[in-house]
Amino acid sequence: MQQQTQQQDTGAVALRYGLIWGGIFTGLQIIVVLINDFDTHDYTTTIAGVLNFLLSLALFFVVGMLASRQTGQVNRGSMAGYFAAISGGVTSLIAQLIIIQFALDSFRQRAQQAADLFNFGYQYSNEAVFAGVIANCVIGLFFAIGLGAGMGALGGLLGRKLAKVPATASYTAPQPPPSRTQ
Length: 182
Known about the structure:
By secondary structure, this protein is mostly helical. It has one domain (about 1-160). Helix content is about 80%, strand content about 0%. It is built from four helices and no strands. The chain has helices at about 1-35, 40-70, 75-115, 125-160. α1 runs parallel beside α3 (about 75-115), α2 (about 40-70) runs parallel beside α4 and α3 (about 75-115) packs antiparallel against α4 (about 125-160).
């Protein structure tokens, strides 16, 4: 019974850290979307994308480290990164779809300019651009989930070494009875 209670407590730690840091991840994603949607220079979008990726790596690493440091278990760090990616990714996806509604015409014009530059011979409509944005958001969500779980596990390795509580073994092999020789 004691181990089951401890298991629920460590799961709650991972969920709590994941939801808190997922909110920070959402804020980062919204800032990047606003820069991308209302930017007139291409280099700013590139810089924002690279900084977004690096800060996301650091964020998922730190959330995994903090959760594992408190529980002493690496898997809780991975789960905290996973929860941060899920909660932050879904709310970011919703926010991106709301923001793109206001910038859809300018986004379509930029996509059309890029298509004309490469002579694709395709005329973009707002529906096609919106469908592309949705597909991009969903693929980005899946990428963030994998990135969150992986970087959370790496942070969990460091967090386990810095743990406030000793790591608990989840499985103990049964010992054979002592043999009697006469």
